[in-house]
Write a structure and sequence with these properties.
CATH architecture of the largest domain: 3-Layer(aba) Sandwich
Number of helices: 9
Strand content: 5-15%
Largest sheet: 6 strands, mixed
Order of helices and strands: HHHHEEHEEHHHEHE
Shape: globular
Radius of gyration: 18 Å
Helix content: 40-55%
CATH topology of the largest domain: Rossmann fold
């Protein structure tokens, strides 16, 4: 099984259209020496740039960085004047039976950029996002109503429960940054963003 760093390196090299099997071991060692504990958009941009420099892809660096920077800029610009009252409090779950709250700093950073406020409190959550690790999660979602902690929450009462069905979503920071950011933006601020991802990477439950 690949480590998160191996998955990240493979993903970034694929963006540069480079097969790591064709790279000298010395270059690979330098790539793996780059700190891979990515959290913010700047972390991901800098990591992508460093890898590109090591494999001498200066022409491709500008292209990839432009995509990353533009995506972040478009989202932050559209939400520039959105107040805290218009930013939903969001809780992300890795499982619901039992309840496992996702506390990834990377996903919390993505939520903030996408127009939400991360929370680990069920009672405070305006939106619940479940990352679907197993197919059985879909059938389990209605069971939220049998738990009074969930049944009385704003998220459930307002039908603001969402399922992300993309395998490995948010697990490796930087692997699919733009898609993950756009997915969260669509869910959290649907008045401002439409990327056509509903039904492909996420869906909304009608519980009541």
């Amino acid at each position: 099984m690949q480590s998160n760093q191996e998955i990240l390196v493979e993903a970034i090299l694929n963006q540069y259209e480079v097969d790591q099997a064709h790279l000298p071991q010395e270059i690979l060692d330098k790539i793996y020496a780059i700190p891979a504990d990515l959290v913010t958009s700047d972390d991901i941009i800098n990591y992508t740039k460093c890898v590109g420099q090591l494999i001498n892809k200066d022409d491709k660096i500008a292209e990839l960085l432009e995509v990353l920077e533009d995506d972040v800029h478009i989202i932050t610009h559209k939400l520039k004047f959105i107040t805290a009252n218009d930013r939903p409090k969001v809780i992300i779950l890795d499982d619901i039976n039992p309840t496992i709250i996702n506390t990834s700093k990377y996903l919390q950073s993505c939520i903030t950029i996408a127009g939400g406020i991360p929370t680990n409190s069920i009672a405070d959550a305006d939106k619940v996002i479940i990352i679907n690790a197993e197919e059985m999660t879909v059938a389990q979602v209605p069971s939220l109503l049998s738990d009074p902690n969930w049944a009385d929450s704003n998220a459930v009462n307002l039908n603001q429960v969402f399922l992300i069905n993309t395998k490995g979503f948010g697990k490796v920071a930087g692997q699919n940054y733009c898609v993950e950011l756009e997915t969260l933006a669509e869910i959290l601020q649907p008045k401002y963003f439409f990327y056509g991802l509903e039904g492909n990477t996420w869906l909304q439950f009608q519980l009541k």
